[in-house]
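Margin note: ligand = alpha-D-glucopyranose.
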Amino acid sequence: MKRATYFLSVGLVTAVSLIPISSCAEEEVSHVTVPRTETKEQRDVRMQWWRESRFGMFVHWGLYSGLAGTWKGKPVGERGGMEWIQQRVGADTWEYAHEAVPLFRPKEGFARDWAKLARQAGCRYLVFTTKHHDGFCLFNSEYTTYDAHDLIGRDLCKEIVDATADEGLKVGFYHSVIDWHHPQYDYIAADQLPYPLKGKPSPNGPRNHDIYVDYLHRQARELFSNYGPVDVIWWDYSKKGNEGPFWRANELMAMARSLQPAIISNNRLYHIPHIEKDDSVDRLRTWKPEQGDFTTPEQTIPSTGIGGVDWEVCMTMNTTWGYSEHDHAWKSPETLIRNLVDIVSKGGNYLLNIGPKGDGSVPAESIESMRIIGQWMATNGEAIYGTTASPFERPSWGRYTGKASKLCVHVFDWPADGTLQVPSGELGVTRAYLLADSDRAALKTERTPNALTIHVPRQAPDGIVSVVVVEH
Ligand code: GLC
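Resulting structure:
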């Protein structure tokens, strides 16, 4: 039973730790150990479905979705994350909720539509926002009334989890450790923490970060306990100065693993998400296994991949994660498919975002792109799923992906002279064929000492990416 009234319920946490913030950090390091009994083989088994999937759908959806990038009748901007609209307009949580709650009206069956969209596009998993930075929870939480259950009488998290399972997809929970609703979220304690009223005194006086962190942990326990198997936990996010210990992250990770032994976690409780330059790739390679299973380059594809670790590029279809009616900078389906191929050719996964509207419906542009990706995947999916980075240097005209005894040649620029030159290494070639050819008729090939020439039709079978498989 929830005992608190409307928005103020977040003060509900009962066991208030009085440990000062600084010693909290030390305590975590010395007393909490994350069980790491897993061998490399066991880890490989746990990671297998994720590594093979290669393609997932991200969903950013919450109160901001109904606002759609408009605040009190005015567009907030045409670019950038409108899930941050509360921060962009500098609204406190009450004003924000006052504007946003009436516009958040999920229609029946929205989750089924998302899950179908994902499956038909060829995604193997779906990760959605259980709570974004605004603090509004799609799940039913005992510890707040700022959740879908209290505001609209539905457990939206359950609806999404069920729909995802019905479509045979794995499910992931995005969960923000940043929280602009909780009155003890101590944005003053760490310079890097965003907060819509930053720079102004706290509206409710001094804040006790430990109370917020207890709340964060209790809600995480709810998420890991109340919705069946959770395949991925996608934390968001830490920055220098407030990473790891600030959230008692080791404990959170240990809890996730004990309640969901097979769970796969990103490393954003400990690491800065963005990589803007390739020289930071080295830094991204350095996290410890207990800090997460994969790293998350955001809106950018590392030019040579991130060798030796698991990674997943998350990316928007326009420039916002949460829906905006003003953002028309849509990437073309061609870009999206080529991004997928590029990422997979370097050994990564692609988590491609949709930002549904306040009623849960998906923007038409996203539906159309997903449909085209799905068509492409229906023909060429075997050159994506279960493939790994190619050992060969990427050609200027396309990409390679590899899988046991197959080299998949993804051709972006179809050769005008009807021949493709691919490195053959030491491998003996048995057969080459086009995935777009349902008969898989053998293409004529010729070997030179270091290369293989494949004779292909003059006309590209696919206007976006045509795939030739070389069996060896
Ligand atoms: C960022 C943003 C956020 C978005 C996310 C997705 O860190 O704060 O709005 O949810 O990354 O990667």
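Residues 3-35 have pLDDT under 50 and may be disordered.
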